[in-house]
C-alpha cells in the first residue's frame, strides 16, 4: 500500500472516479464511520456524486471500519466481502447497497 494514500485524498478523488451511467436511478447516502479518522458520507442522486465530511442524519447505509480497512478496500487490496466476513467492516441499514458501491467508481487509471 502506498504511504501517500490517505482517507482525505481518497474522499477528494471519489467524485472524479464516479461512473454516472452505473448509478442509473440510484438515490442513496453511503455513510462511512471510521474508527480512527474523520467520518464522511457519499451522496448519490440523479447520477451525481458528492462527498461531505461528518455524519448524515438519515443515511441509506452505514459502513463502519478503521481507516486502514477503508483504504485497502478502496484500492482493491482487499475485497469488501472479505473485510466483512473477517469482522473488519460492519454494515447497518440497506446492506444490499454495499454490493453496488464498487461498481459506481472506476479503478485508478
Molecular structure report:
The chain has helices at residues 7-17, 20-23, 67-74, 80-85, 96-101; strands spanning 28-34, 40-45, 48-53, 61-65, 89-93. It is globular, with a radius of gyration of 13 Å. A hairpin with a 2-residue loop joins strand 2 and strand 3. The chain is α+β, with helices and mostly antiparallel strands. The protein has one domain: SCP2 sterol-binding domain (Nonspecific Lipid-transfer Protein, Chain A), CATH 3.30.1050. 32% of the residues lie in helices and 27% in strands. It is built from 5 helices and 5 strands; from the N terminus they run H-H-E-E-E-E-H-H-E-H. The longest helix has 11 residues, at 7-17. The chain has a 5-stranded mixed sheet with strand order 3-2-1-4-5. Residues 19-106 form the SCP2 domain. One of its GO terms (cellular component) is cytosol.
